[in-house]
Structures are given as structure tokens and as C-alpha cells.
Amino acid sequence: MIKSDIKKSKIYPVLVLEYFVSEKNLARLSKLIVYFFLLFVFVILGGWAVNAKMNFPSLALLDHWLWLKLLGILTITLGLMAIIFMLRSYLRASYYFENVVKNQYHSKDLYTFTVGRILYRTPGDDWLAGFLLSDTGRIIMARCGISAEQITKFLTGRTALPLSITLDSGKLLKLREFVEALYKENADFGRLLYGAGMGEEDLLSVCDWVVKMIESDEMSSRFWRRENLERLGSIGKSWSYGATPRLDSYSDDLLDRPEAQFSAYEVNFRDPQVRQIENVLARGAQSNILLIGENAPVRMDVLMTFVREIKRGRVLNKLEHKRVLLFNTSLFVSSFKERDEFGHELYRVMNEAVSAGDVILVFDDFAGFVSDRLPFEVFSLLDKYLASSRLQIIAMSDIDKFHRTLESRSDVMARFERVIIPELTAEEAVMTLLSAVDQIEAHNKIAFTFQALKQVVNSADAYLGEGSLTDKSRGLIIELVPWFLKTGRTLVLPADVSSYVAEKTNIPTGTIGEEEKTTLLNLEEVLHGRVVGQDEAVKAIASAMKRARAGVQNAKRPLGSFLFLGPTGVGKTETAKALAAAYFGSEDKLMRLDMTEYQDAEALDKLIGSFKDGKPGILANMIRKNVYGVLLLDEFEKTNQDVLNLFLQILDEGFFSDMDGKRVNARNIIFIATSNAGSSQIWNMVKAGKNPAESKDELINQIVQAGTFKPELLNRFDDCVIFQPLAPADLKQIAMLMIKRLAKRLEPKGVNLTVNDFLAEKVSKEGSNEVFGARPMNRYIQDKVEQTIADKMIAGDLKPGMQVEFGVSADPAELFAVKITE
Amino acid sequence: MNSFLHFSGERGIASRECPQTFLLGAEQGEVKMSRISEFAAGSERAHSREAIARDFPTHFLRLLYNRTMRLLPMLAYYFWWHYTLAIEDLVANYFNLAGWLANFFSLNNLTKNIFAPWRRLGEQYPDHFSFGDFFSALIVNTLMRIVGLIIRLIVIVIGLVAMIASLFLFVGALAAWLILPIVVVALFILGFCLIVA
């Protein structure tokens, strides 16, 4: 059915001709013939010159004969060149151009060129095989991370299914629809893609991407197209506008920046904002924009898109030939000490901009420029220009400063039209990246699979600090390329992105390595190496870590969050330390905040920073510096309600905003809050012979009733873990661990401490108490054991190489007998 | 039988030197012709490499014949294109070029502002009439207008010359295109005559 309908299209003759001899082969052939032609001309001219000089009369006849033959061959060669030229023109003619490059289809067309090639070249009716083995299909599959070998294996022995698509439906068949049909009607094809981590939407995005790249390539190969010629710019456009030497010294012409260079194709998700800017700037009076975006790269992105539109000449008449100048406010402010001087110069600069007639002036951080911190009331001077129709101004601000300083000023707001830039979604960021990546690929001779680019965006979102998602992703790609080039391969896979990100951030991402697997599987045992008892707590933490690493936890929340409830000295802090050491590699990965320090009214400002005095926040800085680790919040119940509310948000969404309104990402942090709340209840339960872990709900109810924590906060934690008072056996084990640590500390001094049962028993009994648990044990060892050893060492009784052992003393006044052996 | 050969050779869009071309190349591994035959013909009809090698000369000739036969009707399409759409294209390309030249030399813009002062330089006329100041401003401003006029005129003339040259180029190209098929035939006949003579 399809086979016979192919012929009905206008494109058909081109498909046939192209199949016979491709444009590329024609180009090769024509090059060859030109060389041949030149060689002949050279031979003929050379022969003629030699003959003229030597003048062999005997060769005259032969000469004449040879001349004619050579001329004949030359003439035929010329004819061949003309034919090739005609064929090449035919193959790359306008309908090809419109169809392939511009996506302008005619009503009579049945299919696009890309689809036509596949349909025409497929033997039989195995359209899926035809697609997979076509050039376009192979590129699409390679972008999906599926290799030729996999395709070979997939197709071998497979029976073809008929396709429900027909060409006479009156609708043009595009590659996207064709591939969609192939996907829907071949379940095994879906499974092949699924194996490579690709869904239907992903496949179709790749189709669009590959088609777009083909279009872009075809477009750039046609230098004579208006779109390409116009990139050369023009002369004389600025001659009727004024020169701005003074303004130029404080500003930067955005049209001269490399980002202003437009390409024939770009994905633009900023169009609504750009059109809004254009419309406001082109109107009569008060044509000023206040561009509000989360951070500078986002704002510049929108602005540069607008600049490219000006450069391309795709703006309203009133904005044609305008120059967009970015005023360097900090340079300007720092250039003047005197108040008057500052005002006069600003006045002169603004007048220059007005008289030039082609200036759109941009102020980045407008809020800072018109703030009271400057000695001069800038806004009153600027107001005259903002109100006039002779100058257009774009002021930029971040969201927070806009709300804090600009929004409340009605005089400022009256002069501007607001344009708020939304953050791009992850999907939009991927699409933007797809259009930006081809230059990087062409330059470095590498290619990215679709999944790799998706991984870039996901990693940038999850693990890199603040900033716009597109900007972070682009930055990550630029950093990744030199690293990847060292591997000597050419196809970037998602695993490469993961390993680079893991190397860069020290956060394990991607597939789980052998070493990490062992750590994860044995996490409970490793933790128990340091934490005695507390089986429930250790188990809860180990499970949470496994969930996080396997990627099944909610990605939009912190890595883990636990509230440790229990009396003092039962191992809450030790558990947090053990986790940092076991999983994050070092105890340094444990950040610690003593929440008793955050009880007063300024507590919140201390943590997230204060806008008033410009001091950065402790918590914000801590997490920015260590994006991945454990944060221990000691004595969590002691802090005030504002701080608890802050953590309500952090535990729920995994981020918070600092004083500047910048997002701080806490999604790779494990939060461990410890609290003594409910200790007495736990004690009572233990005394009554109940297991507190089993009566957790009852305990939590009591804590809520006491008003220590609100239920919504408790619910935000992944788990509330009850730490039980330590049993005598646990205490003895802890004492043993501590003595072993002391013995280890003594080793470098050459002193061998015998770790025996007696000492452990002694330390655990006398060094612990009901209220403080095992906490005083450390002090006891220090005061009694270490002190005794130190005294002996100073007295010279204990020398390097000797063995020291503590035992029962015969004298009841003495704590223990010390036995020193050689 | 020979249908699998339809896949041989790299043709079409992707084989142009675009950044993704090498995705077809070494790293991914070329899809081998013998393999393709298995897919195309179904595994039960798959032929061994030896069989393909043995039958190759006959296949090749048949293939050449088939292709030529398919191609002949396309000649008519070609000539239709050569004298209709191709000429439209050529004209469109000329307008394209002329439009760009006019834009490159800013002909419209420069003509409109031909008497404007050079880069808006000049002096302001005094608020209160003073003979000296007024004439000094007048002379400076007139000079600036003359400077602007001269420079603009030079660019306009160069632009016009370029546009006229492009027009001649277009007429020449159009004429050459129209007679090209005849020229080709003539070249072949002449060439053969010269060789045979």
C-alpha cells in the first residue's frame, strides 16, 4: 500500500535520483573531474610551450592529431561538469530546501524528505528495519544510546509487522509521526528503547532534535541565504545617530558580545518575555522595563535573546538599529568620591544617551543603584529620563531586592512595566541544551546521547549550587568536555556524566560501585562498630541510606531526616558521627549546630543571614560549602519557633532561601536533630519494664501534648528514633571501646595497655550514671586511668616498651592496682 | 533478492559533514551489508557471504540495469524543473541578494538621512541671539552636514554599483541556465567529433 503510494508525491523523482547518485557523491565526482580538467589543461599548455620552443617539424602532424584528441576530451569533461552541476542543483533545489530546512510543506506533499528516503529505500515492508537501518534512524538510535550491534541483534530473526499508516490520508507524514507509529505498533521496539532508558516522549524528543540538527546543518551550508548573509551585519546604520564617548566608557555594548551572534536555529522559551519587552520599549512615553528574574544569568539570558532579535532585525520598526548598552553601575559609582561630581557625570551621561537617539540603556541591579546607600538620590535624577519618550531603559533586579526595595516605592513602580521571568522547567532546560550542544559537539568532535544530556540537567539541578538551571547545565557540559576528551571516546553516555559529577562533587551518583555496595550492604554492622545497642536507630538510618542511594526516595526532599529522642549520653551524637564516617568517608562531613545558641529573636537571621546588616547566614554558608553530608542539630527543642518553622520548610522541600532570596539546596544533606524531650518518660517506661521503641506513638503523643514539638514538624522527619537508656552490658561494651581507643592512643608512645574485663567493668560502673548515661565515662577515663598512666610515665616507672595492666587492688582505699611489666 | 543492496552506501542527509555524521562511523560500528541482507530477506532467506561473493557480478549488472530503468522517466521531471521551478529559484535568489546588498550598504537608511549631520555632531544655537555664536554654530553644523553627505554619498554609490553588478550577474546566470542543456549536448557532440576526427 505505502510502496505504491510513494510514487504519488512530488518529491518522488528526487528520491529516485538521489538514490541513484547522492549529492555527496556528485560533489566528490565533480571535484575529481575538476582536477582531471586542470591536469589536462596543464599537459596541453606544457606540450604546446615545449613544442613552440624546440620546434620539431617532424612532430607537427602528431602534434596536430594529439591536440584535437585532447581538446575533445576536455570538451567532454566540461559537458560532464555541467551535468553534475545541474544534478546537484536539482537535488538541492528550493522544494528540497523548503521541505527539509524550513519545514514548509506543500499541500500536495505526502511525506517529508526524511520519511520519503526511508520509505523509498526500505525493501519489502519491514518499515521498522527500514527506519533503524536508514542514516537518520541510525543517528536517532545512536542519540538514544543504542549501538549498531544492538540494532543488528534486535533485527535478526525478527518478523516484520505491517504498519497501519497510509499515505493517502490527506495529511503529510512527518518523521515524528512515522516514528511514533513504529513505536506504538512494535512492542519489541518499545522494549529495546526501554532497555536503554528511553520512553516514547524521549524518543520523539530525539527525533525532533535530530531533524532540527539536519535542518540547521542544511541551512548553514547555504551561505547565500539571506539569513546567513545578514550575519555579516551592515555599514552606515549608526551614522545618523550620535556618538556616545562618555557613556561608552561606563557601559558595554551587548550587540558586540559573542552571545549576540545568532544562529539560524535556536530554541527559545523566552519569547513571551522578549515580546513583552519589545512592545513596551516601542511605545511612546515611559517605555521602560523592570526585568525581574531570580539571578543574573537568567536575566541576561532574556536580555541577550532580545538583543539577538534586534541584531536579526526581527523587532518592531521603532527598535530597529538600536544599541543595547549595559551600564556598569559599580564602575560608575566607584569612579566618584564627590557627591556633586557623581550627579553631574550621571546627568551628562544620560543626556548623551538621549541625544544619541539609538540607545537602550540597561541597569543591572537597579535596586542597588537607586538605594539609599549611595550619597546621591539617583532616582530623582533618572526620573526625568524615565518619564520621557526619548530614552528607553531596562532596569533589572532579582526577586528579593525587588520585593524589599522597589515594589514599595510607588514613584519607581509608576515608571516601569514589570516583566517577571519564570524559571525554566527541567524539560525546557533539556530542550535548550539540545539546541546549544551542537556547537560544542562540532568543536570537540564528540556527541552526547539524549540520556546524557538529561543526566546533565538532573545533576545540575540536584547537586550544583544556586543559579539558573540552563546556565548550570551549560556550565556543567563545558566543564565535562575536557574531562571526557581524556577518555579518548567520542560518545558521551549518562554514566560519564554521573562519574564526572561524582568526581567533581564527591557525591556518589549514577550506578553503585563495588566499594560503595559493600559499605551500603554492611552499613548496619559498620555503624554498630561504633554505636553500642540502639538497634532500632541504626536500622532506621541504614535503611534510609539505602533508599536514598537506590534513588527511590523523594528527590525533592533532603537525603534523610531523623529526630533522635532519648536521654543524654546514650549515643545520639555518636550515631551521627558514625554515619558521617561510614558513609561520607570522614567525620569532617558532619556539620554541627548547637541549637541552644539559636533561642533569641535574631536566631533566624543568624541562620539564614540578615538583609539589614548584610551578614551571611551560618546555616546557608554551611550547606553551600558542604552540599553533601550530615547536619547534626543538637538539642533541637531548645531553638525558637521561627527556626522550627524554617526547618519545617527545609525538611519538606529540601531547600530554603537565604537573605538575598537565593535558594540554598539541602537535598543532599542528612538532617539529624537530637532532643532530650521525653527522656523522663523513656526512663519511666524502662523502669516499668516497657520497651520505649514499642510505645513510640504514646511517647510522641506526650511530647506533642507537652508542646515541645508540633505534630506537623514531627511528621516531616523520615523517622523519629527512640534511643533507650543503656543497659549495664551496653555500658560495659562502650567502656571497652573507649579503653581500646586509649590503648591505641598510647601505642605510639611505646606503652602497651592491657584491655581487660576488670577495667571495663570498673569504668562502666563508676563512670556512668542514670542522668548522663555514658557521657561521664570519658571524664572518668581521663581522670583516673589516663592520669595514673601519666603519673607513672613522669615518675619514670613506665617506660616505652613496657606493659601496663589495671587490676583489683588489695587496698580498699585504692581504685585499682597498677601492674607494670617489662 | 537484490533488494538488500538498497541499503548499501551512505547516502542522504546524514552523510553530509554535519556534527552528527560520525555517529554513523566507527564507534557505533558500521551496519554490515551481509547483516542487512539477513534483516531484509528474513533470516530463512539469508545468504552466506560466499554466495553473495559468487553472485555479485550478475547482481551488479542487474542492479545497474534496474537503476537506469528507474532513472529514465525522471529525465522528464528534470527538464520540467529546469525550465520552471529552477528559474523561479534563480529569480528569488537574485532578489535575496539584491535585498541583502541594499541592507548591507544601508541604502534606505542613508538616503533618508543624507543631509543629517555626521553622528549628530554639532553645536547648539544660542538661546539669546548673538551674532558671533550663531554663525559659529551655523558654520560648524553646516560642515558636519557636508561631511555626513560626502561619506554617505560614497557608500550609496558603492552600494548602487554592487547592485548593478549583481543585476548583470543575474542576467548572465539566467541566460547561461537557459541554454545549459543545449550547451551540454553541444559540448558532447563537439568533443566526440574532435576525438573521432
What features would you describe in this structure?
The complex is a heterodimer of chains A (822) and B (197). Helix content of chain A is 56%, strand content 9%. Chain A is built from 39 helices and 18 strands. In chain A, the strands form five sheets. Chain A has a six-stranded mixed beta sheet with strand order 1-3-4-5-2-6, with helices on both faces. Chain A has a five-stranded parallel beta sheet with strand order 10-11-14-9-15, with helices on both faces. A three-stranded mixed beta sheet of chain A has the order 16-17-18. The N and C termini of chain A lie far apart (100 Å). In chain B, helix 4 (85-104) runs antiparallel to helix 6. The two termini of chain B are 46 Å apart. The longest helix of chain B is centred in the last third of the chain and has 66 residues, at 131-196. Chains A and B meet through helix 2, helix 3, helix 4, helix 5 and helix 6 of A and helix 1, helix 2, helix 3, helix 4 and helix 6 of B.
Summary, kept brief:
By secondary structure, chain A is of the alpha/beta class.
Write the SSE topology.
The complex is a heterodimer of chains A (822) and B (197).
Chain A: H1 2-5, H2 12-20, H3 23-54, H4 60-91, H5 94-101, H6 113-121, H7 127-133, H8 135-143, H9 148-155, H10 175-185, H11 187-195, H12 200-221, H13 226-229, H14 245-250, E1 251-253, H15 271-282, E2 288-292, H16 296-312, E3 323-327, H17 329-334, H18 339-356, E4 359-363, H19 366-369, H20 378-387, E5 392-397, H21 399-406, H22 410-415, E6 417-420, H23 426-444, E7 447-448, H24 450-463, H25 469-485, E8 491-492, H26 494-505, H27 514-521, H28 523-528, H29 535-550, E9 560-565, H30 572-583, E10 590-594, H31 603-608, H32 618-625, E11 629-634, H33 641-653, E12 655-657, E13 663-665, E14 669-675, H34 679-687, H35 696-705, H36 711-716, E15 719-722, H37 728-746, E16 752-753, H38 757-766, H39 775-795, E17 803-807, E18 817-821
Parallel strand pairs in A: 2-5, 2-6, 3-4, 4-5, 7-8, 9-14, 9-15, 10-11, 11-14, 16-17
Antiparallel strand pairs in A: 1-3, 12-13, 17-18
Helix pairs in contact in A: 2-6, 3-4, 7-8, 8-12, 10-12, 12-23, 15-16, 18-20, 23-24, 23-25, 24-25, 24-26, 37-38, 37-39
Chain B: H1 33-41, H2 49-71, H3 74-83, H4 85-104, H5 107-112, H6 131-196
Helix pairs in contact in B: 4-6
